[in-house]
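Encode chain A's predicted structure.
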Amino acid sequence: MNLINEEITHKVFGEGNIVDHEGSIITIDFNEDIKKFVYPDAFGKFITLNDRNTAKSLKKILLKKEMEEEELDRQRAEKIERQVLEQQRRERLKNHKIHESSQLVFWLDEEEQQNVFTDWQVSTGMIQSGKNKGQPNRVARLGPNSAVLLTARESDQPETERRILGLYLVEETYSGNLGDNGMIPSHAEFRIELTEQEAEKMLFWNYYINQNYPHRTTWNSGKHRYFDNVWTAQILQDIIALQTDDEHIKKSKNLLEYFCQMNAIDMDNIPEASGALKQ
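Encoded structure for chain A:
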């Protein structure tokens, strides 16, 4: 906005004329008394444009700037709040001796997909070599507070199409013993099987992210990997939003409440999912 030669009135210095405007600085001549002011901050506080049309146009600029500053303040406040909540969560984890990634996500083969929602258990698989060959793969972080996330994709689908089929919580009396077959026992109550339509909307990579390679969506090797506690809460929250059956919603809400309690997560402040597909 060109303000040069515009006449103004200053609350202290009186009448003046704008003789220069460069970036965020305007120069005003008060009867050969030259003074500089910050643009546009000085307007509306100390300086008034005498021309009404010009003043009206400047008011729009000032309003836009004010709204932008308010938005920046809001974003900064939200960032600080997220940082505080994250620090509080980490403190709770530390106090409860809970690892921040103590959940397991599984890549189910076709046979497991057929059986898992009947048997409600899944195997960690067996060690293939070394002195412990033939013994179950151990999952040290897993506890009675953990969730087992069940995923799959068709062989002709890209990894980005991996769907979440359901999940269950580990049996509340689980002590780390997987038995001879590496089966992870499930809680008698806290189990969720998604419908085919629901699973199509629950893409695994909306939640999972490799912090070192945030855009990468590759599973590489192995049938399971550890999964972040908060990501699991995000999934449960999104499942609830998808469901339409009142009984299923109630069941899922109970699971989410129990899960958050067991994993020291603030149920009312679960952040939005920000997995690889959302980057």
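Helices lie at 52-96, 110-119, 196-201, 229-242, 246-262.
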